[in-house]
Every structure is written in C-alpha cells, then in structure tokens.
Amino acid sequence: MTNQKLGLSSAISAGIGLIVATSCLVTLSQGVGFAGKGFIIALAIACGLNILVSFSFAELNGLMPVTGGLGQYTLAAMGPFVSMIAVIGGYIICGILAASSEAAMIGFVVNSSILPNVSPLLITLISILFLFIINVFGIRSYARTQMITTVIMIGSMIIIGVMGALKLGSGEVVTQANQAFNPMGFGVVSMTALAFWLFIGVEFVLPLTKDMKKPEKDIPRGMILALLILMVVQSIMIFGISNYVPYEILQTSNQPHMDFARLLLGKVGTGWMTIISIGAVVSTLNTILAGIPRMLLGMAEGGMLPKAFTKTNRYGVPYNGLFLITGGIVTALLTGITSADDLIIFILTGCLFWMASYIVAHLNVLVLRKRYPDAKRSFCVKLFGLPQIVGILGMIYMMTHIIDVPDLRNAIYSNAAILMMALVAYCFVWVKFVMKKGLFETISMEEVIAQDENSSDLDLNNDPDYDDEKKLETVFS
C-alpha cells in the first residue's frame, strides 16, 4: 500500500478541533448575555486578529515546512531560550490545564444525562484512554476521528442556530428588556478579549504538514477557512440564543448553552446539546493529543528537550510526548485541580503565555523576512509588516484586558509572573548547561528543515503503509 495523504478537509477539521470546546460554548452564550446581538462585533474583531495570526503561521510554515511548529520557527529566528519559553508556557502548560478541564466536562455531561450511576471521573478516564489509543495509531487515525466529530458538531450547531435565529423552536420566543442591537455601544470593543477565546488554537493544523497532500496550499487555506466557518456558525448562534434566552439568565448561568437548547427544543434540545458538548470535548482532547507531542518532537530535534521525545512508534507517533501529555491531563484530574474554584485562574494564566506565543510568532515573521529576504515563501501577506504589527498590538490589548474582575486579574498576573520566573530559570539552565549554547544563538533555516526531514525519514521507515521500495529510496537517497 502507498502512504495515504490528508487533504484540505482534514486541515479544516484540525483547525476547528481545538477551538470549539465546551468552554467556548459557555463563553459565546455569556458574551451574548452581556453584549446582546452586538457581541457579533467583538466576534468579528477577534476573528480578524486570529486571521492575522494564521497569516504569520502560514508564512512561517511556507518558509520552513516542519511539524514542530512554533518551537522550530523560533529556534531559527530568536534562538532556543525564547523558543522554549513560548512553547512550554503557551502550549504544554496551557494545553494540559485546558484539556483536563474539558475532559472533566465529558464525565459530568454523560453522568448527568446518560449514565447517572457511573462516576464522572471514571467516564472521563475511559474517554481519555479511548482517545489515547486512537492517537497511538497515527495521524490518519486522528484525522478520521476528527473529521467525523467536526461534521457532527458543526452541523448540529448550524441546525440549532438556524432554528433559533428563524424562531422555529418549540419553546417561547422571548422579548429582551433591552431591544437595542448593540446595548453596550462602543464599549462592546472591550468584549473582544472574551471573544478571542472562541478562535484561539487554529495553528494546531501545522503538525499535519508532513501528512498533507499539498501543505503549501492546504495549511493556510485550512486555517483561514476554519476561522471563517466558525465566525459564521457562531454568528448564527448569537441570533438564535438572543431569541430564546433572557440576557439576565445568560449572564448568571453556569451552563447557558444548555439553557438555550432547553428553551429552544425542551428535552430534545437538551439531549442534542449534550451530543454537541461531548463532540466538543472529544475534538479538543483529540487535537491536543495529536498536536502537542509533535511540537515536543520538533523541540527535541533542536536539542531543547531530551532526545527521548524524538522517538516514534511504527505509525510515526512520538509516543513519549503522547504519554507525557496524557499523563499530565490524568494527573490534573486525579489531583482535583480541574474541579478547583480557582481553575479559571490557572487556565487564563496559561492563556497569557499562549497570547505571548502569538506575539513571538509575529516577531518571527518580521525577523526572518529581514534575515532571509529572498527565501522562497509559499504563502506571504507582507503589506509592509502591518498584519504582524496590528496582530502584536491586538495581543497586548488582550493580555492587558484578560478579565474585568480586579481580584482575579491580579491573581492571574501574579501566577504568570511566578511561572515566568520558573520558566526563565529552567530554560536558562537547559540552554547554557545542557545545550551549551547562547541564549539567543540561532541556527539556519536549512538546519531546522534538515532536522525535521531526518525525523520524517525515520517516520516513513516505521510506517506500515510505506512500501519496501520507497523505504530503500529513502535510505539511499
């Protein structure tokens, strides 16, 4: 058999995969509660900022088509010190915390609606084991699961949203106390930080690079189309939610998306939204388990992590990274961190680092344009660097408006400062005494690509779908 490749639909599914989480359904509903239908303005601004992020990641991937993503790009642009901080803080820590909270949700949802006599924690752990096994069998196994989950989830959101927007539900259409389209006026811009979380994570398309038929075209298309699809779907949901749920309920409810489904279609709606919520959790966990281990592989190839993370199984899966991320998620669940009252502080602390990693991505583009002006780029939107400059300013705005509650904001900044100091110390020691390199000592793009290609050759030789003749060509070429 020949080695099958993935197409544009897989890229779109991966782009949507991490973004649509249960927490995003809650955030969308709460945003409508505070800003009314005018929340769509904040949504559009947030979508635009994330499209700028996708421009930078698409250009970096077009310049260096590697699977490790940000860690490898930054190694060539700003050196190992910045690379390690961006990836460990923005993806590993934040990814584990976000995934564990999402994983806990699937236990609660299934327990409350389908299996009331089974422990929510047991349901969660079984679900994680199931997704772990899927990812052990390689990127195509992940892609098939992601495709099915995404179609069911997005299709259901469109149907429920359209029914609500057109007032076709069996429930009673409400008359909101404030009928204005945008009751917050210009103040709706302050909701952009909240809306931003509805689009974050589209760069998880990048780990698919080596497995795409046409990565130079499908990677940027996949990211941009994923964002635009979500913008349309969530806009429809905004109108539907506004027609069936009073704003004051949306502001105070712990599960406002379930309230919408119940008021729209009764028990049928509750069951339907349960399916959507389960799909959102599966999609998020599946994307994290597929993407982050490949980021770790890319960093290990550059010497920024132990070489153990470069080892792959016969399906090309970096299994040590997969074990680490799965173990981190399970540990967070078993220690009760995911059920703690201050979980939002941990998640938003990680998100600060995620935002910082986006700033690093924009800076990488500007640095590499200066250093390699004539290098071939399969995707590039220059415009004098304005997309990157606007993107950086947008990220800074988000970081300074992370949450409107002063006590929580101070706690988040304090945690971020402590975490940053620990990360700086760890990364300093690793770079200086393990790698024995300068903190900002870069390597050429050619070296980064060569490291990734060597890993790719090993993956192909381990792939059972890769025939013997091609193995020989790879070894002797």
Automatic annotation (TrEMBL):
Disordered: annotated span: 455-477
Biased composition (Basic and acidic residues): 468-477
Gene3D superfamilies for this protein: Amino acid/polyamine transporter I
Chief location category: membrane
Origin: domain of life: Bacteria
Comp. bias regions, Acidic residues: 455-467
Keyword tRNA processing: no
InterPro entries: AA/rel_permease1, APC_superfamily
One Pfam family cited in the UniProt record for this chain: AA_permease_2
Keywords from the named record: Cell membrane, Membrane, Transmembrane, Transmembrane helix
Listed transmembrane segments: 12-32, 38-58, 70-98, 118-139, 146-166, 186-209, 221-241, 272-297, 317-337, 343-367, 379-399, 411-431
An annotated Gene Ontology molecular function: transmembrane transporter activity
Membrane topology classification: Multi-pass membrane protein
Location within or outside the cell: Cell membrane
Cellular component GO terms held in the UniProt record: plasma membrane
Name assigned to this protein: Amino acid permease-associated region
